[in-house]
Design a protein that fits this description.
Pfam families: OCD_Mu_crystall (PF02423). By secondary structure, the chain is α/β, with parallel strands linked by helices. It has two domains: 117 residues, ornithine cyclodeaminase, domain 1 (2-Layer Sandwich); 180 residues, 3-Layer(aba) Sandwich (Rossmann fold). The chain has twelve helices and 15 strands. The strands form three sheets. A seven-stranded parallel sheet has the order 9-8-7-10-12-15-14, sandwiched between helices. Strand 3 and strand 4 form a beta hairpin. Helix 2 crosses helix 12. It is globular and about 55 Å long.
């Protein structure tokens, strides 16, 4: 392939429909050619981080280069910025450049969606989204498209941000309302997504007894959204699953609660029905807490999805 697709944020989103991306993530988890070395996280002066995340399979190779500046919200700037470069493994040619924040939002929501497809104890009732930023919006769209969720309760430190996401949901024909106390709302919501800046504990009440929780805001050992007592309660009464083994040293909520993250099953264990998952699964029920920290493999799945779309569009018509 001689040409390179350079996609802006809108084009990147168009290349990554949620259902196709979720299917690609599931396929990647069963692909033995996938190689994802540990990501490099360089601390920056002022509290930010620079992430360098390579990954490859038999067809494509990527490097994701993004910055995370949590204080950018006060500057009116995105907290995540950067790009993903996609290469053809056989020729070494660059075949694509994807908008990093868009990929991060969509693949994270797609990973949560895949986990919910396999793990959610029930499929009815409203979804509580805590954090009305980019990830909150992506999860709203993904769970509506992928699982048909029709009702959303939105909580945010910023009432205007919550109202904006409520308005977006209503523009899609969905039911939505702002809630000012997310801890009180937990008792009524069998779906929960926490996507806050994760600079402090926001959720200190236990979720519904048969809830599915996707906790995506905290992705370093210092970050936290859920209180230690709640995490310990979930470890006793429910099922804890992490996205990858990288969470062993990155899942701030669980690590700060003193939980042995390395003993928990991963999403790959769930998809593959491994012995680790079978041993961890609790048939008596209880809430499911899916802790997502991010992984270069999810970005590789997005690159595969994009490359497949390019291949289809460039195939000769007959």
């Amino acid at each position: 392939m001689s040409s390179s697709a350079i996609l802006d944020a809108h084009q990147t989103a168009q290349a990554l429909p949620y259902l196709a991306l979720t299917q690609e993530i599931e396929a990647l988890l069963q692909d033995p050619t996938v190689a994802v070395p540990p990501r490099i996280v360089q601390a920056l002066h002022g509290g930010g981080s620079l992430f360098v995340m390579p990954a490859a399979d038999a067809r494509v190779a990527i490097t994701k280069l993004i910055s995370f500046i949590p204080t950018n919200a006060q500057r009116g700037l995105p907290t995540i910025q950067g790009d993903i470069v996609v290469f053809d493994v056989q020729t070494g040619q660059r075949i694509g450049l994807l908008d990093g924040p868009t990929v991060t939002a969509r693949r994270t929501a797609a990973v949560s969606l895949l986990a919910a497809q396999h793990l959610a104890p029930r499929r009815d009732g409203p979804m509580l989204i805590v954090g009305a930023g980019v990830q909150g919006r992506a999860h709203l769209e993904a769970f509506h498209e992928g699982l048909g969720v029709q009702e959303f309760w939105i909580a945010s430190r910023s009432a205007s941000s919550a109202d904006a996401l409520v308005a977006h949901a209503r523009s899609l024909g969905l039911q939505a309302q702002r809630v000012d106390d997310p801890n009180a709302a937990l008792a009524d919501c069998p779906w929960v997504v926490s996507a806050t800046p994760a600079q402090e504990v926001v959720l200190s009440a236990p979720p519904h007894s048969d809830a599915f929780v996707a906790a995506v805001g905290a992705f370093t050992p210092r970050m936290v959204e859920w209180s230690a007592p709640v995490c310990q309660h979930l470890a006793r009464t429910g099922t804890l699953v992490v996205d990858t083994r990288d969470a062993d040293h990155e899942a701030g909520d669980l690590l700060q609660a003193g939980i042995d993250v390395a003993a928990l099953p991963t999403l790959a264990d769930v998809v593959g029905q491994t012995a680790r998952w079978q041993n961890a699964h609790r048939p008596q029920g209880g809430p499911v807490f899916f802790k997502s920290c991010g992984w270069g493999g999810w970005d590789l799945a997005a690159a595969r999805c994009m490359a497949q779309g390019i291949a289809v569009s460039s195939a000769p018509q007959g």
